[in-house]
Amino acid sequence: MTRSLSIGRRGFIIGGASLGAGLALGLDIPGAPKGALAAEGAPEVNAWVVVKPDDTVVIRIARSEMGQGSLTGLAQLVAEELECDWSKVTTEYPTPGQSVARNRVWGDFSTGGSRGIRGSHDYVRKGGATAREMLIQAAADEWKVPAAECRAQNSIVTHAASGRSTSFGKVAAAAALLKPPADPPLKDPKDWKIAGKGLPRLDTADKTNGKMVYGIDLKLPNMLNAAIADCPVFGGRLKSFDEAKIAGLPGVVKAVPVGATAVAVVADTWWRAKTALDALPIVWDEGPNASASSAATAAWLAEGLDFAEAAVVGNRNGDANAAIAGAAKVIEAVYSYPHQNHAQMEPLNATALYTPQRCEVWTGTQNGEAAFAAVVAASGLPPEKCEVHKIMLGGGFGRRGFTDYVTQAVLLAKQFPGRPVKLLWSREEDMAHGKYHPVTQCRLVGGLDAQNNLIGLHIRLSGQSILASVRPEAIKDGVDPAAFQGLAPSGDAQIGYDVPHLLVEHSMRNPSVPPGFWRGVNINHNAIYLESFIDELAHAAGAEPLAFRRALMKNHPKQLAVLDAVAERIGWSAPPPAGVHRGIASFMGYGSYVAAATEISVQDGDKIKIHRIVAATDTGYAVNPAQIERQVAGSFVYGLSALFYGAITVKNGRVEQSNFDNYDSMRIKDMPKVETIVMPSGGFWGGVGEPTICVAAPAVLNAFFAATGKRIRSVPLKTTNVAFA
After folding, report:
1. At residue 570, what are phi and psi to the nearest 5 degrees?
2. What span, in angstroms and rounded, lies between the C-alpha atoms of 32 and 43?
3. Is 241 helix (H, G, I), strand (E, B) or coil?
4. Which residues contact 643 (CB under 8 A, 6 or more apart)?
């Protein structure tokens, strides 16, 4: 019989026998329903940490691992407070079906917005601390000594006075029967021994020796394979297809409709399915967006930049228009940023097995609960008859937070009950049916007084709202708060400058191309707009760009600190080497303060060689500094690829890009040296994976201006004939 005890809103629940005579520790998540029941009816909520009799510590991670390192970082936080042997730590995913069956005991499964660690550090740390105190108490009870005389370290509990010791595994069953402490002490981060260290990732070995299974690798007995084509025009539908033309092709089982917009071919192998699909005559009803184009969208967005047009306000202080009207000098610029695809290495895929009694899906997802909801909806079965098994992601960047591919897999599997059906999108399908980085334009007008001080700044954004598409209930009075990332008056993405008179507006204009969360999301274009224009203002004022920024940051010490750090490291105060030019940028996003300074050279006026980027990031606390360094470097690969190459364009309602031959990525030879300064100042928890991506592009653009005197205001650079050297 399982015994469990609750200790309040942020308390913990322990369960013993039901988890193999080990210690199972649950964590109470704010907002999660209480009172979940185990199969035998005993209260058992939120089993996150298990200590097995052999001293193995299993840490259950609800967040998804897609290369960002959250799995290792969260495990470090638990292990730190638990005082366990790090070499004996393993991890596993709970399933969203199990969580729903227990009233969402694992809470939020979503992994995005750089919240993997910053959104769950508190209850994870308390979980480890509670387990530690219970294990100590169990050992003390066995020895009949005060628990205060015992201590835990490296999965061993010791009593120094008597010289006795025991392992966690040996007292785990007894610990499971104890009442957990109400308020276990947490360590001061300065005393961390496991957290805060650049430990190797727990998933590295399996990724390098081939043991790791991604969704694209999955094989199940008697499995069918499917290739799919959705209507190439957004908003269009499937009209008809001629299955007779592919009848008799080797391995082909059947061509079937998938929902109202797609058709799939199912075969014994994926290549045979894809080959047959390419040969299948398909007629599309292209719908109302058949004439949509990027050119028309650009013209429409440009209309939204007219200050006479209505717009919603996201940030205002003073009277920017009046200040600018009375300024001694007025500077104006218009910038633009395109749609961009996630282009993750592993194309979207999901494997589904459907019977009238049960539906299971195996897939890589950034949101296990959303995938589970999609399975329930598409299968028509109740939640207790559905399940999603999370598999390692081959890249997500926000795309795998959506569930369209999961729905398709289930709709396919329903047409082949009893047989697993593995749906794999082709790269071309992945390009044509993304959830793209929103397209935007920006008009900026700044006013300088007679002493060349910035007295007024008016920023007008015109463009797409992600929330209007995916979470319309979050739009209040026409305002999409996410559109103002990095330009907001407060919060985790606030503007880092004090301007006496400021007005930031957004004219929401949503074309037919579906938007989505793309690593860094709105800070990517907003950082280019603001940081490039601040550079323009500095040059118009005859000021040194760093000094001009510093003067506006007096009330933003953390933002100023990261800016100063990159300036010092790159040697800003001294002249650069001959032929080398520098640029600098800073921003705030996802609760973290970031800055970058770069050195580039330019050949023939339009060939850029990026020699070096120095990046500083203040995330409050650094759980694994080595992972942060890799995340920063990786974000620069993504951000610089977007700067030079990333543009999804539409013509005749269709995406024009199809594969990496026309949607390119930077090569190893183009990658600069990256020097990362990790400077956690404490007192808050910021994100890591997304913030730094936004400062690489404006730093390079500002350096390009320093080198050539030319200001580039349109991304990607390939459209301006600027390329890597």
Report:
1. -85, -10
2. 15
3. strand
4. 696, 697, 700, 701, 715, 716, 717
Residue recorded with tokens 């790791």: 212
Distance CA 352, CA 387 (A): 10
d(CA 33, CA 457): 46
Please name every residue paired with 264 in a beta bridge, in sequence order, or none if there are none.
228, 256
Element spanning 317, H or E: strand 312-317
Q: Which residue is associated with the tokens 């957290």?
A: 195
234 φ, ψ to 5°? -60, 130
**Burial (0-12, 13-18, 19+ Cβ within 10 Å), 402:** buried
Q: How far apart are CA 643 and CA 596, in angstroms?
A: 15
User: Closest by alpha carbon to 691, among 562, 503, 564?
Assistant: 562
Q: Are 704 and 710 contacting, i.e. CB atoms less than 8 angstroms apart?
A: yes
DSSP result, 130-192: HHHHHHHHHHHHHHTS-GGGEEEETTEEEETTTTEEEEHHHHHHHHTTSPPPSSPPPPPGGG-
Q: Cα separation of 478 and 490, whole Å?
A: 19
| CA pair distance 652, 448, nearest whole angstrom | 45
Q: Which residue type is seen at 501?
A: H
**For residues 699 and 545, is the Cβ–Cβ distance under 8 A?**
no
Report the alpha-carbon distance of residue 425 to residue 269 in Å, rounded: 13
Q: What span, in angstroms and rounded, lies between the C-alpha atoms of 127 and 49?
A: 7
**Is the omega angle on the peptide bond into residue 716 within 30 degrees of 0, that is, cis?**
yes
Calpha distance 630→73 (Å, rounded)? 13
Kindly report the CA angle at 670 between 664 and 676, in degrees rounded to 5? 110
Helix, strand, coil shares, percent, the chain, to 5 = 30, 25, 40
**Residue that has been written with the tokens 């002249």 in this structure:** 575
Instruction: Give the whole-angstrom CA distance, residue 418 versus residue 425.
Output: 22
Nearest Cα to 703, choosing from 613, 599, 633? 599
Query: Using CA atoms, how far apart are residues 543 and 565, in angstroms rounded to an integer?
Result: 20
Give the whole-angstrom CA distance, residue 150 versus residue 173.
Answer: 18
Distance CA 277, CA 657 (A): 20
The DSSP output letter for 717 is G
Mean pLDDT, 10 residues at a time, the chain of 725 residues: 25 25 47 32 41 85 88 94 95 89 79 89 86 92 98 97 95 85 91 97 93 96 98 98 96 98 98 98 98 98 97 98 98 98 97 98 96 98 97 95 98 98 98 98 98 98 97 95 98 97 98 97 98 98 98 98 98 97 98 98 98 98 97 97 98 98 96 98 96 97 98 97 97
Q: 154-162 long-range contacts, Cβ below 8 Å, gap at least 24?
A: 154/83, 154/84, 154/85, 155/55, 155/57, 155/83, 155/84, 155/85, 155/88
Bin 569: left if φ > 0, else alpha if -120 < ψ < 50, else beta: alpha
- Cα–Cα distance between 70 and 414 in angstroms, integer? 35
Identify whether the C-beta of residue 315 lies closer than 8 Å to the C-beta of residue 489: yes
Which amino acid makes up residue 273? Answer: A
